[in-house]
Each structure stands twice: as C-alpha cells, then as structure tokens.
Amino acid sequence: MPDIVVIGGGLTGLACALEAQRSGAVVTLLDAGDEPGGNLRTAIVDDAAGRWRLDLGPNSFGDGAADLMSLVRAVGLEGELVPAGETAGKTRYLFRDGRVQPVPASPPSFLTSSILPLGARLRLMTEPFRRASRPDAPEETLAQFCDRRLGRMARLKLLTPVVSGIYAGDPEQLGAESAFPAMIALEREHGSLVRAAIKGSGPPQRGRLQTFTDGLQALPRAIAATLTDAYRGGCRATRLERIGDSGDTRWRIHTDDGRPPLDTQHVVLATPAGVIARLVQEHAPAVATELAAIEYAPMNVVHVGVRNEDAGALPEAFGFLVPRDEGLRILGALFSSVLFTGRAPHGHALVTIFTGGALDPGAATLADADVLDYVLADLRTALGGSWKPALTRVTRWPRAIPQYVVGHKDRLTRIETAMQGLPGVTLLGNWRGGIAMPNCAREGADAARKIAQTAAV
User: Fold this and answer.
1) Are 42 and 31 in contact (CB under 8 A)?
2) What number is the average pLDDT over the span 36-40?
3) CB under 8 Å, gap of 24 or more: what pairs does 317-320 form?
4) Do 139 and 178 touch, CB atoms closer than 8 A?
5) Which band of pLDDT confidence, cut at 50, 70 and 90, is reported for residue 113?
6) Residue 204 to residue 159: CA distance in whole angstroms
7) Looking at residue 457, what is its pLDDT?
8) Res. 407 pLDDT band, cuts 50 70 90
C-alpha cells in the first residue's frame, strides 16, 4: 500500500510526488495523460529548414524561484538550462498607435514616454496621494483597483494587456486581491504602490528567464523518469472510495487501466478543478460545487516560423502585448528565437502568438485557417515584413487558465473549511496556489513536506 497516491501529472503533482519520494515515502502518481507535464508541452519539429522547438503552453520560468530550481537540480537538468538573452529577457514592447514601442523600465522614463497620453501620465503622478482602501472593504475588481490608483487610461493601455498576458483574463472580472494579493498587501502596508516601489518593496524578483535545450517539457519528463515505477501514465482515476470510519480512514482509488484499485491513507488531488469536483462529489458535494464553479479561459497558442528576411525587424525583446482597442486581435506575441537560442533553424525566426482568452472567447471556436489569417495579418501590421510562413502550428487549450475572479479567495476559504471532513485528502492545482510554474512547484513541494510532518510516512 503506497503511503501517498498523487492524482495528476502536471508540474504540481510531479513536484509533490518527487518531494514525498525524496522524504522516504512510498508514492504512486496517477497521470491520465500519455505524457507527463499537463500543459507543459513541447513539440520538436524537423523539416527541410532544420529543427524547431515549440513550447505549446508556458514558455519560460525565472531562476529566482527556489523550489523550482531545486526540482531542476534534483533531476539533473542544470546542464540543460538555456538562459534568455541579456537584453531580450529584460525588454518588453507594447503595440500602441500602430507600432510596437518599448515599455519604459523605470518610473522617470515612464513619465516621459509616449506609451500613455500626457493626461494619463499626469494622473499617474497623483498615485501616492490616493487614499488606500479599508482592509475590511469588499474585494474590488482589478479594473476598479487600477482605476482608483492609476487611472482608467493606465488600465486600458497597460493593465489589460498585462492581465491578458498572465491570466488571459478580464480585469473587470478578476478580483484584485484574489489575482494579485501581493499588490494589495503593498497598498495596505505603504498606502501607495509608488511609495512601496521607492522604498524598494515589491514582488519577489523572478531572476533570469530560462528554458531547457529541448523545451520546458524536459522538466516533467525528467521528474517522471526519476520517479521510475512510481509514475503511472495513461491511468485515469475514476472513483475515490472511502474505506473505514473517521478514526481510521483509508482511501481506495479506482482507475481505468485495468489494474487493481490502490489503497492509501493520503491522497493528493492535483488536477484541474473540474476533475477534482468529479472525484470528491460523492464525499463532499459542497466542495465539488465550489470547484465546478471555477471558470477557465480558453486560449490558442500559435507558432509561426519564417525566414529572417520575411520577419521584418524583430527587436531584441521578450515580445509585445496588445491593448484591446488598438486594432489587432491577438493578445500578444513572444519572440521565441530572439529570447532563446535553438528555437528555430539557422536563418529563421520563431514567434509564439497568444489569442483568445476571456475577452475574446470566440477565437477558440475558429478554424485553424481563420486563426492563422488574422494572426499573420496582425504580425504584418505590428512588425512589418511579409510573414510568409515556413512553419505554422495552432494549439488549442479550451480550459487554459483558471480565472481568479472576485470572491475567489473566499471560495478557497470555503473549500478549505469543507475539506476538514475528508481526512487524508489534499487538494492542489493552479486554481488555488498561483498559475505560474514557480507557484506550482512550491505548492507541490510544500504539500509533500506538510504530509510528511503530520503523518508517519
């Protein structure tokens, strides 16, 4: 009987299983997918031009995240790290007034930039004098918070594209504290975001952006290989059965791979919210209802490879984002081959484009040809060049990113309270602990350490 059964082969579940195994626990990880990694997917395409490396979901991570880098070291991937170019990794662009423009890197240069109209820049200067909200005030939407502190124009031209790039979300629906709790904490502590920045406070530094030689899926593959027989791919958990009474509860996990059920005292459910809702419905219907209500935004990730002469002038930058009223349909683009070496064959460029999200869900229903038509047109408008493609690929994520809408933090509290009736069951996933790779790695490792501390495993 395994000490711990982890259900879910994304980064969170893999990190939890590996940390538990390293602590001495007997672990089994069940992954419904044929490959480990969840939405960490990499496609390697060889054609007449050479080799292309396409990350189909997330595309990079910062090496300032301790738990994530610990995972990298634990599975021997340090030598496969590929750092972002020094300039490209620090430079962002925004599509404004018919062209891509660099986003200023410091407050003084920001105030002299044309990224925002003069009136909006003057409005920003008043931010330190704006009154902070009361700690007991109802949660604001992200749009309300930004309008109050920075002004409506800053929200439309800066916040909305940034939020589209992170959450594929709508600032008028996302909760300010649910989605960006560190930002709300800065306002409460310092009374102003600008004053907090002047004092050197702010979110933790991400470190230098990194990928791996053969893309981000190298990490989940290496973790699964390290787990050896503890990793069971292509194995879907179909039912969670409770065995015993409240004083001696065990859990029996039924699967669809024809093998006998697994009994254990500790179950970690590290899957999308809807999958967990199905598994706990029998035992905790209130939890299942809360989980089923969590919304996800759809996303298309589009890769376009071209010869250098057809790509226009790609700047030394991470990529660019697009405000919603600037005439382009795409949310933004990542200059993959500028950012990291080895993403495109010699003499070629690779760009990764993001489209859809909560503000354009209809993009997810279009045919590939229609998506490519407007993607290529938008690239020509933004960057110049013919963009006659040598390679194209459209990857669809119907439920790409969980939306931390207003009240999401309260929903998590209700779930946590209701879970007290399910001893030995831990819920994890990017629907609760943050959506980025470092969040997933930290949440998975923390859960394994907590189980080891509270149980004799």
Assistant:
1) no
2) 96
3) 317/87, 317/88, 317/91, 317/92, 317/93, 317/102, 318/84, 318/88, 318/89, 318/90, 318/91, 318/92, 318/93, 318/209, 319/92, 319/93, 319/351, 319/352, 320/92, 320/93, 320/94, 320/95, 320/100, 320/382
4) yes
5) confident
6) 19
7) 45
8) very high
